[in-house]
TrEMBL record:
Its main location: membrane. The chain crosses the membrane at residues 70-89, 101-120, 132-153, 174-199, 249-268. It comes from Paenibacillus swuensis. The lineage of its organism: Bacteria, Bacillati, Bacillota, Bacilli, Bacillales. SUPFAM superfamilies: MetI-like (SSF161098). It is found in: Cell membrane. Keywords: Cell membrane, Membrane, Transmembrane, Transmembrane helix, Transport. The keyword Transmembrane applies. One of its GO terms (cellular component) is plasma membrane. It is a multi-pass membrane protein. It comes from the Bacteria. This is ABC transporter permease. PROSITE patterns: ABC_TM1 (PS50928).
Length: 283
């Protein structure tokens, strides 16, 4: 009886997630007139791929936004992993001078932050506005990631480090040849965190990026969905054609923006739970 109620409850929760995506897909595969007036349906009407064809062949702005997002995601994830791994590995060594003070300062950032305006002024003073570094560098790592990775590294057998040092390896060689291969679960876990975060980058992109040619896909989707006339691109010159698009193209854009990160998830999912758990409980 209880199991049946639990299954019914989980099925209802699943429907709350699945049904909206089913509607998005159905609208994207139907002509624009069927979605006028807020009509709700889960099965495509007069099945057509025109919306996807338009985005992939006629809309340069959409393809540029996808390219920008891929670039931002790849570069940002590499920077995040490089900073997080090296910082966490150094702090995992008790012989590191000033280790306690550094841990205290990192922990301090979990409680207090400078705020939005000081951060913006700092980014502006460094000349990073309208560059992807304005998005990547302020969030190169975070205290949660560093502490979890540090705990994971501390849980690795010290005998491995000692054996490598006896063979003449330095700290960089130990990190690259010994620690990282043994830490793939935790690295894959945070790779997924970082990738999803950069792919869904929205607020900071609006804050720091005024050049529409550098917008990631989430900012472009905002323009498409919120605009009354739904034109791709915030600014269209008088010599350029302004494409008027319907709800089917909007929904197709949302689906296309979801697909890449959804396809990556299954390859990293098996590491997700185990990596986060290991890094959080080992001493």
């Amino acid at each position: 009886m209880i199991d049946g109620l639990l299954y019914a409850f989980l099925a209802a929760l699943s429907l709350l997630v699945i049904v909206p995506f089913g509607h998005l897909l159905a609208v994207s595969l139907s002509p624009a007139e069927y979605s006028l007036g807020g009509n709700f349906f889960l099965i495509p009407k007069d099945f057509t791929l025109e919306a996807y064809k338009y985005l992939l062949t006629s809309s340069d702005r959409f393809l540029i936004a996808i390219k920008n997002t891929v670039y931002l995601t790849v570069l940002g994830t590499i920077v995040n992993l490089a900073v997080s791994i090296t910082l966490a590995y150094g702090l995992s060594k008790k012989f590191l001078p000033g280790r306690s003070l550094m841990l205290l300062l990192i922990f301090f950032t979990m409680i207090f932050s400078a705020g939005l305006i000081p951060t913006y002024l700092l980014v502006q003073s460094l000349g990073l506005l309208d560059t992807y570094w304005a998005i990547i560098l302020p969030g190169a790592t975070n205290a949660f990631t560093v502490f979890v990775m540090k705990t994971f590294f501390q849980g690795l057998p010290e005998s491995l480090d000692e054996a490598a040092r006896i063979d003449g390896a330095g700290e960089v060689r130990i990190l690259l040849a010994v620690v990282i291969p043994l830490s793939m679960p935790i690295i894959a876990t945070f790779s997924l965190f970082f990738m999803v975060g950069h792919w869904n980058q929205f607020f900071q992109a609006i804050l720091y990026m005024s050049d529409s040619d550098k917008w990631p896909i989430q900012v472009l989707l905002r323009q498409m969905i919120l605009s009354a006339n739904a034109s791709i691109g915030a600014e269209v010159s008088s010599e350029a054609m302004e494409f008027q698009i319907g709800n089917n193209v909007k929904m197709a854009a949302v689906i296309l923006a979801l697909v890449p990160i959804v396809l990556v998830y299954p390859f990293l999912q098996k590491y997700f739970a185990s990596g986060a758990l290991l890094g959080s409980v080992k001493e």
